[in-house]
Amino acid sequence: MSFSVMLAQLADGMVRTVGIFFLTLLFSLPLGFLVCFGRMAKKGAVGNLVGILFRAYISVMRGTPLMLQLMVVYFGPYFLFGMSIGNKWRFPAIIIGFSLNYAAYFAEIYRSGIESMPIGQYEAAKLLGYSRTQTFFKIILPQVIKRILPAVTNEVITLVKDTSLAYALAYAEMFTIAKQIVASKSDFTPFIIAAVFYYIFNLIVAVAMEFIEKKLNYYH
Amino acid sequence: MKYLEMDHVKKSFDGLEVLKDISLSVEGGEVLSIIGPSGSGKTTLLRCATLLETMDCGSLSYLGESAAEIVDGRSVYKKPAELAKIREKFGLVFQSFNLFPHFSVMKNITDAPIHVQKRPKDEVYKEARELLDKMGLGDKERAYPCQLSGGQCQRVAIARALALNPKVLFFDEPTSALDPELTGEVLKVIRSLAQMHITMVIVTHEMAFARDISDRVLFMDGGVVALQGTPQEVFGSDNPRMKEFLGRYARL
Ligand SMILES: Nc1ncnc2c1ncn2[C@@H]1O[C@H](COP(=O)(O)OP(=O)(O)O)[C@@H](O)[C@H]1O
Ligand SMILES: [Mg+2]
Known about the structure:
The complex is a heterodimer.
Chain A: H1 3-40, H2 44-63, H3 66-81, H4 87-115, H5 119-127, H6 132-162, H7 174-185, H8 189-215
Helix pairs in contact in A: 1-2, 1-4, 1-7, 1-8, 2-4, 3-4, 4-6, 5-6, 6-8, 7-8
Chain B: E1 2-13, E2 16-27, E3 31-35, H1 42-49, E4 57-62, E5 65-71, E6 74-77, H2 80-87, E7 90-93, H3 105-115, H4 121-134, H5 150-162, E8 168-172, H6 180-195, E9 199-203, H7 207-213, E10 216-221, E11 224-229, H8 231-235, H9 240-251
Parallel strand pairs in B: 3-9, 3-10, 7-8, 8-9
Antiparallel strand pairs in B: 1-2, 1-4, 4-5, 5-6, 10-11
The structure holds adenosine-5'-diphosphate (ADP) and magnesium ion.
């Protein structure tokens, strides 16, 4: 197999890998806020229950392997409800599995950011008459984003590498294809290409995140 | 007219009684200074007055509008919507400024008048510039709080509170977080507000300043009002606790 043919096949996988990456971020970043608010709920009996449920959710998501979670999402509909699962379900299952898992990690990052905010910011906002929504979106959230950016960067870089776990569901992303070519052609080159690809992907992510951090450096 | 009235205010924190039946009132245009040893409950009293803390017992009203009343020996507060209206009547300047670090000086001052009070932008900006000039910060409107000195931050915080046109302005030790050489510029600003007859309640450890600008001084000790009156009456009092308190300052 010529290098260019190999590269062309791997390129298909790269596109899918990038797809998993962006779709996971698209869903898990906002979902993380939902989980975070659920986790922080404590008003009244309902709030308490919600808090406990989301705490359990985060605990399970962080306490079991992502690969296992992907399997559960993929095979779950069949084993639980007897639904037939086909090729069409593979990609959505991967995105759902990744998003549910990453939302748990993001939720804890958001929570640490929100809880690190000095109480004086809330009190000043209250004195100035801001509503609770205004206070959150105008005063708290922008500062939280700046505070959590380094932790989010870590998580996003991990996600780039974690996309390779989709191979557990035989989804033809970058790593799955590389492994197939290596096995069938007894040629190690695809792994090197894969390594270079993941590394460059992460380099771009790191540079992009650094750029955002710099943009937010106009205050401290 | 009584701009602020608090009666029989009691407040405990897990069994520790911090305010033990405090009553005070402030007339429109009056400057009231609150002095007293640290831990005597001054901050707690201001926090109760500004609705940051709920009183256990006591009534609270601004310009005759009640925020809380005593029912069966306990404070009963008005509904949140009514409290929101009453919040418009006062402002508070914190010891630690609590400016919004991600907002420029201008935005710190103008954001609430524009987005809370829904006043026209042009008018708000114009007033904010006048305020900044008055504070001696005319050239700082684009700066961020982290680029300012403590004294400048505190003056921005004062401008931010004034921009909402409060009827009563509270200060909780506005110069305590500042280096000594910066307290003067903040005290000068507060002094100018007193000359404009803005109603103020000032917790301070600056005795000479309190004596100078106050219409009345209130000396708190151990959660009660130990003494109150004109500056002459309070600072010249024979009250042993007051004398001991002032003595400590004289020795500093
Ligand atoms: N939120 C709180 N929880 C528990 N104790 C408090 C709280 N706020 C104040 N106190 C206590 O109340 C007392 C009076 O505090 P404070 O009002 O800050 O006094 P001052 O401002 O005169 O120094 C202190 O003993 C302080 O420890
Ligand atoms: Mg205090």
